Amino acid sequence: MNQGFGVTPEIRTQMKLAMFYVRDIVFLVGVLGCSVLLGNLFPPQQLVQLICFYVVNSLFGIWLVIQPFSNPGRRNYDLVLSDLIPQQRVFRSFDFQEFSSTTEYVDVEVTSRND
Predict the structure, then answer these.
(1) Of 10, 11, 54, 61, which is most buried with the most CB atoms under 10 A?
(2) Largest Cα–Cα separation, the chain
(3) Rounded to whole angstroms, what are the CA distances from 51 to 22, 66, 69?
């Protein structure tokens, strides 16, 4: 049935080209496109700075599409966005504001026993 047409077995299967997934390639093209658009802000005399700008943006884009070892199911740009955008649901215990300071529950007297 699968005669080399590039049909994925499931809907959630990611297609891979070379060492990047298609989703990553689209993201890298977007990052590089934005860097080219922003590169027009550099005057022609700053060619070295422009090349450094392209290199730094390329490396930053590659870092954003890498999956970290601590959370292999998500990309770095997913993790950065989840940190920047506040979550809709924040779960706190009912007694979250019960103590006025941390010293109230730290003042535990410790006695040592000398046998």
Answers:
(1) 61
(2) 82
(3) 26, 23, 31
Q: Which helix (H) or strand (E) holds 17?
A: strand 16-17
Of 30, 87, 33, 38, whose CA–CA distance to 64 is shortest?
Answer: 30
All residue ranges of the chain with pLDDT < 70 are 1-9, 11-12, 90-115
SS3 92: coil
Please give the Cα distance from 14 to 101 (Å, whole number).
49
With contact defined as beta carbons under 8 Å apart, do 74 and 67 qualify? yes
Residue with tokens 């941390």: 102
Question: How far apart (Å, rounded) are the C-alpha atoms in residues 86 and 57?
Answer: 26
Work out the number of other CB atoms within 10 angstroms of the CB of residue 65. 19
pTM for the structure as a whole:
0.61
Query: pLDDT by residue (tens digit) across 52-68?
Result: 999 999 999 999 988 88
Side chain identity at 112, as an amino acid letter? S
